[in-house]
Automatic annotation (TrEMBL):
UniProt keyword list: Carbohydrate metabolism, Glycosidase, Hydrolase, Polysaccharide degradation, Signal, Xylan degradation
Keyword Hydrolase tagged: yes
Species this chain originates from: Siphonobacter curvatus
A Pfam family: Glyco_hydro_43
Protein name in UniProt: Beta-xylosidase
Iron-sulfur as UniProt keyword: no
Amino acid sequence: MKVILMYWILSLAALQSYAQARKEIFFADVTIYVEKGKYYLTGSQAGGRGPQGFAFLESKDLKTWAVPAMATDSLGMILTKGDHTFGTKGFWAPQIFSEKGTYYLTYTADEQTVLAQSKSLLGPYRQKEVRPIDGSEKNIDSYIFKDTDGKYYLYSVRFDKGNYLYVAEFDLKTGTIKAETLKRCFNQTEPWEATPNYQSAPIMEGPTVIKLSNKYYLFYSANHFQNIDYAIGYAVADSPYGPWIKYKNNPIIHRSIVGENGSGHGDLFEGIDKQLYYVYHIHNSSEKVGPRRTRIVPVVKQWDKKAGIYQFSVKGDAVIVPVMAEK
């Protein structure tokens, strides 16, 4: 009888664990936009989970999510393939920002960076002229940063026997870069950026840039996304173009810190509670990479008086597992 009871308890625990996993959110290359007391999550969707493009989920607490009540369709799609948008496949790595009453969505499709816009946060995001930002060569993982002087900069990944981060001044009105300003941010230089668990060409991707006290902080992911050591670090500079100095204690998000493999490619944001967070994805399990799961972790920002910069770390014991609300 005790054996049967123990088996029943273990089976129940397994079922509960499975049910929890079933409710988890499977967005990769994720970002969160905050507005009017709510969080809006989007990212690369796993294949077969809806039309190609991007969908929104909404939350008030970062833990429980649902399709926005005011969404334009039941799936929460904010940008859809073929609806006045560039791209036929590979819809990855979205980022949302707003300027003067217009919302902008930058993303990757067909290994090109793209900019679409909408008058509503919930979309649909479309293009007046269907085209990529810079079709001269392949570039992915776009992040548009607005400096305090009003200038915009496009950070993205370009291919050169590997994935390297580049920056260029960006003209929001024309949706194009100023090609003469294009510059590589840095090379692969640190052991954590190239661990032997998955052999690949150099890969640095998934940029996010913020400015604090006249210093620029570039957060990025390194290693191949299939590597269990896919991880996040950051570098600091006095200019949007660099030169960049990598943080000596990188990575700040890694499986050794957050406890799950493949922790990378996300975005930094300030919560409604004024706490900094980083949203990212992890591998599906220790046995397989996809579909990748979404995670959120609180970020600690500390002023280093001697160095004159902020230092960042995360609360690896406080990782949030976002789930879908019960219907």
